[in-house]
Write a structure and sequence with these properties.
Oligomer: single chain
Bound molecules: pyridoxal-5'-phosphate
CATH architecture of the largest domain: Alpha-Beta Barrel
Structural class: alpha/beta
Largest sheet: 9 strands, mixed
Number of strands: 20
Radius of gyration: 23 Å
Number of helices: 12
CATH superfamily of the largest domain: Alanine racemase
CATH topology of the largest domain: TIM Barrel
CATH class of the largest domain: Alpha Beta
Strand content: 15-25%
Length: 418
């Protein structure tokens, strides 16, 4: 459930007409519902209350400061993947003890800043990385914490670009190597390895892969215990799927019901890293119809948003529901919804049955809150769209539309060209 609903045939976000915001702010734009964000976070928190997990929002799904602040206000921690995300979290005074840091390619600069900040732990993805963290911590005369990201080699039924938990992927460390590292912890005196981490993929709509991976890891942890190796934290990652089209994903409660029995048998401190589940359906992308084009073979709705704003359809062939802001009982037709960018890959939908809209109408591209704005670019020298947040009957621009000055900042004509 989310807060983008039709009332009297008009799309509302909470208590405001989306059209009103589109007219005021201009299009294209991203729009987020504060209430939906809180609601989704709360659903996870309630469902998993029996193990009282630390819920670290995966801010790579949506790094907007107002979105992050909304979740921090609810007690969320943060799952970061870069120094930039760390700096954003620190700007909002996120508690470093609730920050975990994943990424297969952490640089020395990133590692040093995270150690200085005192984050809870690094999610370590390889032996060389662990060696590097140890070296940097030693240089700083500090001891830091790590969780090893285990690749449980579990196939997750999702798009092959977003499955991460098999040995074909670049992520994590296989079980045997994890064991070897834990046995030789003395080699890393500046890193306390206190946890294990898994994240097997994104947009998973069934519990089976989660259950399989978590069972595997919990059994592994108990076998370690027999050898005197104590693990304090289990970070079960993110990956919970949402409804884009006709998926029937597990609810937070169903997910919890399926894995709590396994988790409750342990005394591990549980960490979760949901991204898409919290923010995916809490955001939409609003765009305006520029032209309708009929080339005799196909019909196109050409809009002012493009693949540079929302790349999921082009990149993953992802489905996003598209609805006019005004629901009308009119004829439908079959259209490709495309943007102005000079690429055939610039589309939001192909062969989609839609109401016949006209020039100047607004369309909402639904479920665009996760991996939307954060993946936007300036391709074709297009300014990034603004981000707007609604709270009840109020709204605020939480990120300005980029200006052409922004786009040219930092570019120089060298002397030899003058
Ligand atoms: C991307 C990512 C997440 C969040 O994934 P969602 O599918 O958005 O929940 C969590 N943990 C790690 C390590 C990630 O890379």
């Amino acid at each position: 459930m989310h807060d983008f609903q039709f009332k009297n045939n008009e799309l509302y976000c909470e208590k405001i007409k989306v059209r009103e915001i589109a007219n005021k702010v201009g299009t294209p734009l991203y729009l987020y519902s504060h209430h939906t964000l809180v609601d989704h976070f709360t659903k996870i928190k309630k469902a998993f209350a029996p193990v009282n997990p630390m819920i670290c929002f995966a801010m790579k799904a949506n790094g907007n400061l107002a979105v992050l602040k909304t979740l921090l206000n609810e007690g969320a921690g943060v799952d970061i993947v870069s120094q930039g995300e760390l700096l954003k979290a620190l700007k909002l005074k996120a508690d470093p003890k609730k920050i975990v840091f994943a990424s297969v390619g952490k640089t020395e600069e990133e590692i040093a800043l995270a150690i200085k900040t005192g984050i809870l732990f690094f999610n370590v993805e390889s032996v060389p990385e662990l060696e590097e963290i140890n070296r940097v911590a030693q240089k700083m005369n500090k001891k830091t914490q790590a969780a090893l990201r285990v690749n449980p080699d579990v196939e997750a039924a999702t798009h092959h670009f977003i499955t991460t938990g098999t040995l074909k992927n670049k992520f994590g460390i296989d079980l045997k190597s994890t064991y070897d590292i834990l046995k030789s912890q003395k080699k890393y005196p500046h890193v306390k390895i206190s946890g294990l981490h898994i994240h097997i993929g994104s947009q998973l709509t069934t519990n089976e892969p989660f259950i399989k991976a978590i069972k595997k890891i919990v059994e592994f942890i108990s076998s370690l215990k027999n050898e005197g190796i104590d693990i304090e934290y289990l970070d079960i990652g993110g990956g919970m799927g949402i409804i884009y089209k006709d998926e029937k994903p597990q609810t937070a409660q169903e997910y919890a019901d399926s894995i709590l029995p396994i988790l409750k048998r342990t005394s591990l401190k549980i960490i979760m890293e949901p991204g898409r589940f919290i923010v995916g359906n809490a955001g939409i992308f609003v765009t305006k119809v520029l032209y309708i084009k009929d080339n005799g073979y196909k019909k196109f709705i050409i809009v002012d948003g493009a693949m540079n704003d929302l790349i999921r359809p082009s990149l993953y062939h992802a489905y996003h529901e598209i609805v006019p802001l005004k629901k009308a009982e009119v004829d439908t037709g079959t259209f490709d919804v495309v943007g102005p960018v000079c690429e055939s890959g610039d589309f939001f939908a192909k062969d989609r049955v839609l109401p016949k809209v006209i020039q100047g109408d607004f369309l909402a591209i639904m479920s665009a809150g996760a991996y939307g704005y954060v993946m936007s670019s300036n391709y074709n020298v297009r300014c990034r769209a603004p981000e707007v947040m609604v709270h009840g009957n109020k709204y605020a621009v939480v990120k300005d539309r980029e200006t052409y000055q922004d786009l040219m900042r930092g570019e120089h004509i060298p002397e030899f060209l003058k």
